[in-house]
Amino acid sequence: MYASGEDIGYDFGDDSKVGSKPVKLHPNIDRGWAWMVVLSSFLVHILTMGSQMALGILNMEWLEEFNQSRGLTAWVSSLSMGITLIVGPLIGLFISMCGCRTTAIVGGILNGLGWILSAYASNVPYLFLTFGVTAGVGSGMVYLPAVVIVGHYFQKRRALAQGLSTTGTGFGAFLMTALLKYLCADFGWRNAMLIQGAISLNLCVCGALMRPLSPKDTEKRVLRSNGKENQAEVLSHSAESVKSNGVLSEEVDKKEAAAAANEEVLDSGQQVEHAGGSGRGGNMHGLRMLKTVSQLTVRVRKGFAIWYSSYFGAASLFTNRVFVAFIIWALFAYSSFVIPFIHLPEIAKQYNLTSQNNIFPLTSIIAIVHIFGKVILGIISDLPFISTWNVFLMANFTMVICILTLPLMQTYVSLTVVCALLGFSSGYFSILPVVIEDLVGTKDLANAYGIIICASGISALFGPPFAGWIYDITQKYDFSFYISGLVYMVGIIFLLIQPWIQKKQPREKSVEGAQV
User: What residues contact residue 276 under an 8 Å CB cut-off, 6+ apart?
Assistant: First the structure.
């Protein structure tokens, strides 16, 4: 189900860097339609994650409109961001059953509906339901397929492709901040949300571009020529996709056999119908309905079996200790990124920097540099002599330093410098899918990434309200940044310790065996 620690060597390097004779790939792998998929993912990031990064504008409007505390009002933005990520494991189930395209189209409809309904809000709890839950679930149903589909279409340029697609978050934060500012000033925040809801329906078009690869194409893409043993192991995955959970796999095999038998019966029935005339048309229509239902049942059960085995089977992702360390890291890390986006406009207002911040918002600076960070870190990670894992760690350390020093900066210039460093270091989000894919394998990328973004969603859910609550008590945001930075550091320590422990254990066992 996933690569072991010894297989990846804790470098998390790209498999494509291995200099061996390549297997013939599908024409759309690393080229062709793959770049249309990158464009689709790029637009999804603009309309979902980019819009959420610009919610600081709406947060100020809601504070004035409903006259509630900062802690309570911040829950609206946090629910939207958090639920987008928390639903990741559930969306992984939808992807297993329906595919990326269908999941994304349904999510686009839900997201647009959430924005439109929120325009009629009469209180903050109403926004919890419409914007936090409805728009949040819709964003999650589009966001995860947009990340997973890029991983399916790329092998040699995975980090670069993910970097280019996820730059949409930075572009979106910059564009949506300017757009929402303009719309709120000229039309009011309610009409602004109506317009944004109409724009968000374009997510359905983005989902339609996520054309799936056939199973044979996917099998060719996964085949990495790292030796005959590795090839045999990869080929065996396609034949034993659900064998880690024996009962479910047997049930699915039986259902597939039954479906095949039904198809044979229907085919023979169609031949009889042609021979016997139109008198049996009603019966054959019923048989076709039965065939459709049977195929749908098999598809759902098979998708659920794959999803269930990834979480609870013998080869569960949770048996991978390094992956568990990633979950702990995600629980602490993401809030440190979203807190500045929600509360920086208020911080600038407290420091009497509103005029400068209106000309060039600090959140826009983070967003613009975030774009360059994602592309540059993606290019660096694809270099054959650079470890993606080391790039990921260095970016995390830089981001922690920025979070801890941001409260000390009280001039616009110093805040600009720290925000620029924060934006660049947060570019590690572009290589996060690559790191996870190298850890668990392509087959489990959807479920594994779903778990990670679920943990990130929990972090995003509680981070901004916590910062607002601290402000309500102390009338300062300083302690919010200090606490979130220290907690973030704890998550990084888990990432550093767990691989070291897992490397040390086999050595101790080998020493004990030698003594015996």
Answer: none
- The structure tokens 């770049």 sit at 35
Percent of the chain residues past pLDDT 90, beyond the cut: 16
Beta carbons of 388 and 431 less than 8 angstroms apart:
yes
Q: Whole-prediction pTM value?
A: 0.63
The 8 Å CB, 24+ separation contacts for 247-255 are 248/304, 248/305, 248/308, 248/309, 248/313, 249/305, 249/309, 251/301, 251/305, 252/298, 252/301, 252/302, 252/305, 255/297, 255/298, 255/301, 255/302
Helices (H), 313-444: 321-350, 354-359, 362-382, 388-405, 412-425, 432-440
CB distance 416 to 390 below 8 Å: no
Structure tokens at 71: 């802690």
- Coil, strand or helix at 410: coil
- pLDDT (average), residues 44-70: 86
CA dihedral sign of residues 456, 91, 2, 168? negative
Under the phi-then-psi rule, with left for phi > 0, alpha for psi from -120 to 50, and beta for the rest, what region is 165?
Answer: alpha
Burial of 386 (0-12, 13-18, 19+ CB in 10 A): middle
- What pLDDT does residue 49 have? 86
Domains within the chain, CATH numbers bracketed: 27-213 (1.20.1250.20), 307-506 (1.20.1250.20)
Helix (H, G, I), strand (E, B) or coil at 226: coil
Smallest CA-to-CA distance from 317 within 475, 446, 174 is with 446
């470098």: which residue's tokens? 11
Question: How far is the C-alpha of 155 from the C-alpha of 513, rounded, in Å?
Answer: 40
